Amino acid sequence: MLSDNEIKNAFLNVEVLYLLHTQILQKMKERMSGWTAREDNGSPIGDIIVELVPCLKLYVDYVNKFQDSVDLFNKLIEGNKKVAALIEVSSELRYLSS
Known about the structure:
Elements: H1 4-11, H2 14-33, H3 46-52, H4 57-64, H5 66-79, H6 81-97
Helix pairs in contact: 1-5, 5-6
């Protein structure tokens, strides 16, 4: 349906970013569940944010190529009926699950 290159360029590194966000969210939830204002010696999540700094370079590629990705994605939908149908079904499933 789509080549590996088309998938890579259309979705950039969104899977890696999603996993990163999932891990950060889990760490923040764990930290905040046991935190009280009395224990505030600064930021209760500062060290989690500091851990994120090396990963920020992932966002550079994502942001810089985002519009190209959107354009490619739209071109793929317009030029491939199977892709368009897949996106439509996926959107409907997301709507039904929310």
